[in-house]
Amino acid sequence: MNSLLRPALSLILLMTLLTGGAYPLLVWAVGQWAFPAQANGSLVRDAQGEVRGSALLAQAFTDERWFHSRPSAADYATLASGASNLAPSNPALGTRVLAQADEQFDAQQGPVPLALLTTSASGLDPDLPPAAVSYQVPRVARERGLPESTLRALVQAQTRSPAIGPEVVNVLALNQALDRLTSQSR
Q1: Contacts of 13 (CB under 8 A, 6+ apart)
Q2: Residue 106 phi/psi, 5° resolution?
Q3: Name one GO cellular component term (predicted).
Q4: Mean pLDDT, to the nearest integer, of 125-151?
Q5: Residues 79 and 97 grouped into a single domain
Q6: H helix or E strand, kind and range, residue 54
Q7: Do residues 109 and 23 both lie within one domain?
C-alpha cells in the first residue's frame, strides 16, 4: 500500500505546483508582457489619469446630458451579471420594455431602437449600434446646447467596425469624447 501511496501523493503535489502555481504565473507574466492594458482590465482614464471605467463594461449613465448605455438586468454590477432570464412570453418583460419605450419615446424620431430597450446577455455590454446612439442625439444636443450635426459627427468618429459583426459605438468612449468636446467649447 505504501508503494502506491507515495507516488500518488508525489504526483498530486507535482501537478498542484504545475497547474495551480507555475502555469497561472506563466499566463499572468505573458499577459502583462504582451497585453498589459487588456490584462489589467482595459481601464479607461480621463485627462487627469483617474480611472473612469473599463472599455469592456457598460456603465449606468442616467443624466440626460449623456448618451445612455443599453439596460442592464443586474444594474451594471459585475458580480451579478447576467440576462434577465425573462422569456419573450413573460408579461414582466413586455411591461418593462414598454415602460422604457414610453420613457424614451420621441415622436419626431419614431420607435425607440430595440438595443435601448433590451438587456444584453451579460447585462454589461459596453457597445450600442450606431442607430441606437443616433436616436439619443437630439436629447443630448438639447441638454448640452450643441448642434445635432456636431454630435452626429462625434458619433460617426466613435463608430468602429469589429472584425466580426456590425458596427458599434462604445458608450463610455463616446461620453468621454463628448466631455472633451464640451470642455473645449467653453
Answers
A1: none
A2: -125, 115
A3: plasma membrane
A4: 92
A5: yes
A6: strand 51-54
A7: no
